[in-house]
Design brief:
393 residues, single chain, eight-stranded mixed beta sheet, alpha/beta, Nucleotidyltransferase, domain 5, 15 helices, five-stranded mixed beta sheet
Amino acid sequence: MDKQPKFILTINVGSSSLKFGLYNYETLEARYIGTVEIGGTGNDAFTVKNAAGAVVFQKRGLYNNTVVAFDELLQWLEKNNLVEFIVAAGHRVVQGGPEGKHPALLTDYMLHNLGKLVYLAPNHLPAELEVINIFRDTFPEIPQIACFDNSFHLHMPDCAKYYALPEKYKNMGLQRYGFHGLSYEYIIQKLAGKTAALGRKRIIIAHLGNGASMAAIKNNIGVDTTMGMSPMGGLVMGTRPGDLDPGVSLFLLKHEQLTADELDTLFSKESGLKAIGGFSDVRKLLNIEMHNPDARAAVELFCYQAKKMIGSLAAAIGGVDILVFTGGIGANSAVIRERICKDMDFMGIEINPKSNRNGLEFISSADSRVEVKVMQTDEEWMIASHTQNLVNN
């Protein structure tokens, strides 16, 4: 009989979904990957796929919060007799604080300290810590590893990291942290295997999805990124506004008399593409833009801001040699990539329309001075890799 493999469970809690993966502990090959939608519609999907991408299980239900979604995952693992073979669990933790901690074992001490950082990520950390504690209470013998999403940006220079605010706020941890770090780390790792002298390349990675950001990398170090203290800043996103004049917040607080919680809900769930075009999903906006001017305006703003951010990040690192599109939109929407790259030839960015439409990895034109690539990211695999390294050591 074949030896039953040991597994690493990865858990990635998002604002509207819980993603998970089960990876072979020795080879890091995916056995199962899946998603639980957290929408509270009554028709949310819990979907499990095998390594080949085929759906092996799907269930519709009411998953209106993270706890319900995670409980569904635990039940599926137990029904399929998989829990006993899990040797470690790796979690994406969005915020590790000013020190930008590297992956680490989740101990009582670390959980206590993470609890103090909730004010820096109130829309993400509470749910992540809730899942960690449920897993810990249910399976106390299985070690859990925290993989921090802001670690990639730890070495940004002070001019990119700190706000022009009095020193006391800096000491409170108010700074630009950046996010999507696990995605950027995965892309850089894959590029390293394909690109000679990567450390000498100036790289911009555009992680474009419902949450969107970009990062500028030089000497294999994250030099700047578009998100700030929270994942609400930078580019306009599905339901988030991106960068705003501070006066906007003051106006809403003073003249609209919004509470802090109401302002948080507005900026987290009711702004961005949804506010302009009626939908947060770029695919829906593209489908209706021909006869819906609001949808067209939302898509135009998204591409305009992405183009502008590429230019500003290129200035921060003295140019660009490689531009990578990744994330749900960046890796899958040829139309969005084409519109972002249009008229960027002054920077040496030119794409081959046919290669772009056909979904090839290299979409640069023959005349492009910048290598433009399309790459799928895999945050779950990156979590599994970090978890394996820590457990082995």
